[in-house]
UniProtKB/TrEMBL annotation:
GO terms for molecular function: heme binding; iron ion binding; monooxygenase activity; oxidoreductase activity, acting on paired donors, with incorporation or reduction of molecular oxygen. This is Putative bifunctional P-450/NADPH-P450 reductase 2. It comes from the Bacteria. Belongs to the cytochrome P450 family. Keywords: Heme, Iron, Metal-binding, Monooxygenase, Oxidoreductase. Gene3D superfamilies: Cytochrome P450 (1.10.630.10). Heme binds at C404. SUPFAM superfamilies: Cytochrome P450. InterPro entries: Cyt_P450, Cyt_P450_E_grp-I, Cyt_P450_sf, Cytochrome_P450_Monoox. Its cofactor is heme. Pfam families: p450 (PF00067).
Length: 456
């Protein structure tokens, strides 16, 4: 469902669900596509709850309760859901994305430091050169050639994170092994853990099929080799893994053995590329359907950069490009569900929270609530230009102590890649294609996004 006018765009979104929602049916529907299940009333800026087979699920959509879960009482909600932990533990072990308690407290400062914004000048150079390589490849396409933007952006961001995390000397074959291993793993895992709904508070381990084991083995083999190289002092010194190795040597209290290093490296790789690829894909969809916004973006790029390619140093001046990315993240948050498991009883608004229940903040709902946003389905980058959203109404990177560790990296990368490619190419959604958002682990257009590429 989208509406395109000369100077406005109502961006694609599924029609709200109508009719009766049986709870078991809801679970199965959510397993297929989490966006299909919401009724118009679920978008209201208030909390709601349901119970499935006796399990309490609370949907938190009132900003003051979002604050309570993410920040004010975060300790009670620090733990990820059993579905998330079980789905990823085979691959990530005790990696930051799914750890909690002491492990999380120990590792969070380390990982935050590794991807910190102070290192952006170095990581930004990798972003610039990988994007320039893609621009060169695009310049060899026939003008008007059709490509799938989702795959192109996935290749771009995977290359950026693999070179920044593992080092510039990783090699194309190893990069391919990791990238294919991750996408294979994602396809094989289930987003719902039935064990949790039949009485196991921590869910049940997922079935480690031969295919799943093969994907994990591919990824672990490459990362283990890279960690060994860096431990032997032979890796790229600017790589995130190298920083991790040096930090660990300096501070033995971190107690990071080789397996823990692999887990954190795999976490950074996973967290750091799908999300940015989805952001860029949706940004192309929106810009392509809103020429008035594209014009403002191009004017800004020309004013700030002239004819040269944008650099990481230009990013703070690219305000309109930033607003386009922020509005993209509002309409299509790559992580559309932030799930937590309550440790202890609590009260969210007038809902009594039971221990071990699921508490979910759904950026998809929060960002499109008519109570919190003016014309919520409309693409309007301007809403991010001179003001900030009301606190806890906009959480594409989560909020509070568990906020995305790579926020500045991801934002900078999205702005820089978008500006660099938009300066040189006109990207248009292929004729007759209508994007429809679907959600499993990340939010993406069903079937990807076919676009035509024409040099400017
Ligand atoms: C536009 C791009 C990105 C978006 C929208 C995004 C979003 C998020 C969100 C929503 C979370 C929290 C998930 C939850 O609470 O359940 C998260 C966590 C995380 N992200 Fe990002 N992310 C992005 C890019 C990156 C990048 C580039 C990196 C690394 C270089 C990264 C590293 C991480 C890590 C390590 C965590 C776990 C933090 C913790 O649990 O303490 N992210 N991200």
């Amino acid at each position: 469902m989208e509406e395109i006018g000369e100077d406005y765009l109502v961006a694609a979104h599924p029609r709200p669900f109508e009719g009766e929602r049986g709870h078991l049916k809801l679970l199965l529907q959510a397993r297929r596509d989490f966006l299909e299940v919401w009724r118009q009333s679920d978008y209201a800026g208030q909390n709601s709850q349901i119970s499935i087979l006796g399990r309490q699920i609370i949907v938190v959509n009132a900003p003051e309760s979002v604050k309570q879960v993410m920040a004010a009482n975060h300790e009670n909600y620090e733990r990820k859901t059993p579905q998330m932990r079980r789905a990823l533990e085979f691959l990530l072990g005790d990696g930051l994305f799914i750890s909690d308690g002491e492990t999380w407290q120990h590792r969070r400062p380390l990982v935050s430091n590794i991807v910190h914004k102070n290192r952006l000048p170095v990581f930004g150079k990798v972003m610039e050169s990988v994007t320039a390589e893609m621009a060169l490849r695009w310049s060899h396409l026939e003008p008007g050639a059709t490509v799938n933007a989702l795959y192109e952006m996935a290749a771009l961001t995977a290359e950026i994170i693999s070179r920044t995390a593992f080092g510039n000397d990783l090699g194309a074959d190893s990069a391919k092994e990791v990238i294919e291993g991750f996408s294979g793993y994602q396809k094989l895992i289930d987003s719902i853990n039935i064990g949790y709904f039949v009485g196991f508070d921590d869910g049940l381990p997922i079935w480690r099929t031969p295919k799943l084991k093969a994907s994990v083995a591919r990824i672990h083999k490459v990362i283990d080799r890279v960690v060994d190289q860096h431990l032997a002092g032979k890796g790229d010194q600017d790589a995130m893994i190298d920083i991790m190795v040096r930090r660990t040597r300096r501070n033995p209290n971190l107690k990071l053995d080789k397996e823990a290093m692999r887990n954190e490296a795999a976490t950074i790789f996973m967290a750091g590329h799908e999300t940015t690829a989805a952001t860029l894909t949706w940004a192309w969809y929106l810009i392509s359907s809103a020429p008035w916004a594209e014009e403002k973006m191009l004017e800004e790029i020309a004013r700030v950069c002239g004819d040269r390619a944008p650099t990481v140093e230009d990013v703070p001046q690219l305000d309109y490009c930033r607003a386009v990315i922020e509005e993209t993240l509002r309409l299509y948050p790559p992580v559309p569900i932030l799930g937590r498991q309550a440790r202890e009883a609590d009260k969210l608004g007038d809902i009594d929270v039971q221990p071990a229940s699921l508490v979910i903040v759904v950026p998809w709902l929060l960002h499109r609530s008519p109570d919190l946003w003016e014309e919520p389905n409309r693409f309007m980058p301007e809403r991010f230009l001179d003001r900030r959203p009301t606190p806890y109404t906009y959480v594409p990177f989560a909020a509070g102590p568990r906020i995305c560790a790579g926020l500045q990296f991801g934002l900078t990368e999205s702005i820089l890649c978008l500006a660099t490619l938009a300066q040189r190419f006109k990207v248009r959604v292929a004729d007759g294609f209508h994007a429809s958002p679907v959600c499993r682990l990340t939010l993406r257009p069903a079937g990807g996004l076919p676009v035509t590429i024409t040099p400017r």
